Amino acid sequence: MMKEIKRPHSAQKTLRVTCLVLADLILINLSAFLALYIRFEFDLGQLRATAFLHDMLVYAGINTVCTIVIFRILNLYNSLWEFASVPELLRIAMGCLLSSVTYMVGMFMLQLAMPRSFPVMYMLILCLLCGSLRFAYRGVGRTRAGLRSRGEKRTMLIGGGVKIVLNYNLVALPSVNIHGAPIGTLVCFALTALLNLIAVARIAPFRLNYPGYFLRPLFASLVMAFAARGVYALAAHFLIPSVEEAGRLTLLLCVGLAIGVAVVIYGVLVLALHCIRRSDLELLPKGDKLARLLHIS
Prior knowledge:
The chain has a two-stranded antiparallel sheet. The radius of gyration is 22 Å and the shape is globular. The relative contact order is 0.07. The chain contains 11 helices and 2 strands, in the order βαααβαααααααα. By secondary structure, it is mainly α. The chain has helices at residues 11-39, 44-48, 52-73, 86-109, 118-147, 155-170, 180-203, 210-239, 248-272, 278-281, 287-294, and strands at 3-5, 80-83. Helix 1 packs antiparallel against helix 5 (118-147) and helix 6 packs antiparallel against helix 7 (180-203). Residues 1-8 have low confidence and may be disordered. The chain is 73% helix and 2% strand.
């Protein structure tokens, strides 16, 4: 069950809330850009040739203020979370949904251009980024509390520093350009995860099961990826005679078949390889019933 710990006003809390608001300012505008960038299939040149990017920048200030106000009304800044739960996710999702609706209404009233798929993509990306930020804050807080007695590990600072260096150098390369940003982010999280794993391995009173944590999920993911690619190629071979005759519904059908088969295969492999334990499922709502249904011990 969710617990919101109300803490007395302090300079430290004011600083944390301020940092959270500033982070949201960045994520709100980043979500809008990524929605357009993904909509145009990561082709920045094609995006620049349209009026969508210009109109997004024109409306950016209004959207940022409206979204911050919505988050404030939903109390996303008034409390610090101790336990993550479904109500928290619902509040984040509600805030992102309202932000997307106000974005769509505001753009329409100002007669600014916007792709039809933009509101949904913007809402999903904003929900993912803002939710990840808040849960990462809670996770970092617990990790720091657990490691403080044996020496604090500043792994996030190391990963963040590597990300800044990579972004600065890769984005400047014409052959890499904007793709340097996701590369830097991937390296940042991979390095941070590795350093955290080393720190946990040093203080854990038990031996970590590396094959269970990494190799088996990796194997399931690789099989899923190859299966998705194969099913898509097979479906496209029978349903799409040529590239010129490929329709939107046909492409969606091929992608949907690939995703559906991939989900089934991954789920079967995760259960067969015992990647999920009963204790993992019990962390979810009704997880004990789900464990009994799947016969997971």
